[in-house]
Design goal:
Number of domains: 2
Structural class: alpha+beta
Mean pLDDT: 81
Number of helices: 5
Low-confidence stretches: 1-25, 32-39
Helix content: 10-25%
CATH architecture of the largest domain: Sandwich
Shape: globular
Distance between the termini: 22 Å
Largest sheet: 8 strands, antiparallel
């Protein structure tokens, strides 16, 4: 039967887990029950199962609340059988205390992941408020179009649109919270109005980060003004909304489009906390490569989000 894909361990052998649970087949039926068992398992298969189950519970307990809530939500109604069902019950809290209720809105999920800056871009004019609480206000430059259709399914919040003009962009001043150095994540929803141009989504000066589309319509991430780090393996040429993201933890770099890892070959370059401003819709280094189309829900994190976090945000935002 189908199994939930996630931080769950599918037990495929008889075994035990310390003094917490015993899971085995009894009269041909899979069962689980509390029982005090020997500290040392009797067989190598039991030892392997015990180790794997302990690792699974440890991984589960380390997940942030938003990820736990997402897996909880995905597991509801899943058809599971045998041992996998009981491990799911343990990890998702049907035996242990239940986790927090699922965060079913996109902005709640973003905030639960702890962004250092989060611009929802639903203003009707002027500057963009930072919803993270760090007051990284993005000041308007030029003439953006406000109140255009937003990206998030079922959310009335609007977006802004830029018309590929190097005088039209938003800029957030340097702050301690924005000095993410070489461990960070950038997430944005974008809607292209044209193809075949360099178009910047977010950038931060020489030696900082830059996430943009190049002329061949591949998503690309680079150490601004210095070196390319990674390009996507697919292009975007349509005029619909897409969620794009980059996560970086030193040499561990990933590009995502619509929840999928689309990372090509990575040539690592260390991103520096430049102390410079952050620009939305313009390349800070060259003062050009302006965005053409809509921008929405741009968030900066001082952590490298997991693939599960990125997928969860995509599914919540797109209504998938």
């Amino acid at each position: 039967m189908a199994k939930v894909k996630g931080p769950l361990f599918s037990v495929d052998a008889w075994g035990n887990f310390g003094g917490v649970l015993v899971y085995q087949r009894r009269r041909g039926e899979a069962t689980v029950y509390p029982y005090t068992v020997p500290v040392n398992p009797n067989t190598l298969p039991q030892q392997g199962v015990r180790t794997s189950f302990a690792a699974a519970t440890s991984d589960w307990n380390a997940l942030p609340p938003a990820s736990k809530a997402w897996w909880w939500y995905k597991a509801q109604g899943a058809r599971l059988s045998g041992y996998n069902m009981y491990v799911q019950n343990y990890l998702l809290g049907l035996i242990a205390p239940p986790p927090p209720p699922p965060l079913l809105t996109y902005p709640e999920s973003v905030l639960a992941l702890g962004p250092v800056a989060y611009w929802r871009m639903g203003e009707v004019s002027g500057n963009l408020a930072d919803e993270s609480g760090n007051v990284n206000t993005a000041v308007a430059n030029g003439e953006a179009s406000y109140g255009v259709a937003g990206a998030i399914a079922g959310d009335s919040d609007k977006a802004v649109s830029l018309a590929r003009h190097q005088l039209d962009y938003f800029e957030a001043a340097n702050s301690g919270s924005l000095n993410t150095a070489d461990v960070f994540s950038l997430v944005a929803w974008v809607k292209k109005a044209s193809n075949g141009y360099h178009m910047t989504i977010i950038s931060r000066g020489t030696n900082g980060y830059q996430l943009f589309f190049e002329t061949t319509n591949y998503l690309r991430f680079m150490k601004a003004g210095v070196a390319y780090v990674v390009s996507s393996t697919i292009t975007i040429t349509d005029t619909g909304y897409h969620m794009v993201a980059v996560t970086k933890d030193g040499a561990d770099v990933h590009l995502y489009i619509d929840g999928d890892d689309v990372s090509g070959t990575v040539t690592n370059a260390t991103i520096v906390a430049t102390g410079g401003v952050v620009q939305l819709g313009l390349d800070k280094v060259a003062g050009d490569q302006p965005w053409d189309g809509s921008l929405d829900e741009i968030a900066v994190f001082a952590t490298a989000l997991s693939a599960g976090d990125i997928l969860a945000l995509w599914e919540l935002g797109s209504g998938a």
